[in-house]
Amino acid sequence: MTTPRRRVVVAINPSADYGAAASAAPGIVAALFAAGHDVFPLIAESFEALRLAAGAELAAGADALVVVGGDGMVSLGANLVAGTGIPMAVIPAGTGNDTARGLGIPVDDSDAAVRMLVDALDRDPRTIDAGRVTRADGSERWFVGVLSAGFDAIVNERANRMRWPRGPRRYTLAIAWELLRFRPIAYRLVVDGVVLSRRAMLAAVANGTSFGGGMKITPQAELDDGMLDLFLVAPMTKARFVRLFPRVFAGNHVTNDAVTIVRAKRLRLDAEAGPGAVIAYADGERLGHLPLDVEVVPGALRVFAPHPAK
């Protein structure tokens, strides 16, 4: 079998995980060149500049977009290629790497991830779903993993301002800080046309299984089943919440009677706190304020990643 020669755009986040992406970049580019591909590496001084540069290269014609970094780079890539048919690949070099983990890509061994990518470029890409978000101003955004709104998004705000510690511990510490002053939120939800009013500690809409660096918030979610998982945690004492939290990393928190997971294709998220009072994040990137309309788009993304066993 002859390896197809592909025009590959490689977008590198120089700040991901304190420079891990930039350090890994030469090896990634060299491996793709050695495999016979035409490689166009991109690195820029800002996230927005990188997005614009990658968009221009894709518009010029490309067979694949490789993003090097964490979930923020997955967000960049998905918002460039979702619905276009251009496949995306992920080399994890960030803090959380939840999308890469969910796709079965090694997150602690960049050499193994690069070898997997080179092998995957020889085969047809995998097709997965994506979430499409419509904001109050009518603008749209895509996400691959998890959209969070409420306590979890507040924690994201805090974690993104922190420079220490590195990795998942930063998220854990941010939770501890924010829990001291948090109060449950009264949500107004529309789930596949059904109106729900719920007070909750946190709310999330998941296409993938985890966020926050391996927190398996919706362990039964699948990337290619045409559904989203709405995750809610009912109000509880802070002491009980602290006891529940460690179970999220194992995914066994779902048996707790305060946890509700509802599967849906389309949702509207709003809160009685009023417009602009509750913030949302998706794939670790600041998305905007509620209200938001969220829907799953089956097959919106093609990814160079392992195909699931049948």
Main attributes?
310 residues; alpha+beta; six-stranded antiparallel β-sheet; 32% strand; globular
User: How far is the first residue's CA from the last residue's CA?
Assistant: 23 Å
Question: What pattern of helices and strands is seen along the backbone?
Answer: EHEHEHEHHEEEHHEEEEHEEEEE
- Output mean pLDDT: 89
Query: Which strands sit side by side, in order, in the main sheet?
Result: 6-5-16-13-8-9
Query: Strand fraction band?
Result: 25-35%
Number of strands: 16
Summarize the main sheet: 6 strands, antiparallel
Percent helix, as a range, is 25-40%
Report the uncertain regions: none
Structural class: alpha+beta
User: How many distinct helices?
Assistant: 8
Gross morphology is globular
Rg result: 19 Å
Write the layout of secondary structure elements.
Blueprint: E1 7-12, H1 20-34, E2 38-43, H2 47-59, E3 64-69, H3 71-81, E4 88-92, H4 98-102, H5 110-120, E5 126-135, E6 140-143, E7 146-150, H6 151-161, H7 168-179, E8 185-191, E9 194-200, E10 202-206, E11 228-233, H8 238-244, E12 259-264, E13 266-271, E14 279-282, E15 285-289, E16 292-303
Parallel strand pairs: 1-2, 1-3, 3-4
Antiparallel strand pairs: 5-6, 5-16, 7-10, 7-14, 8-9, 8-13, 10-11, 11-12, 13-16, 14-15
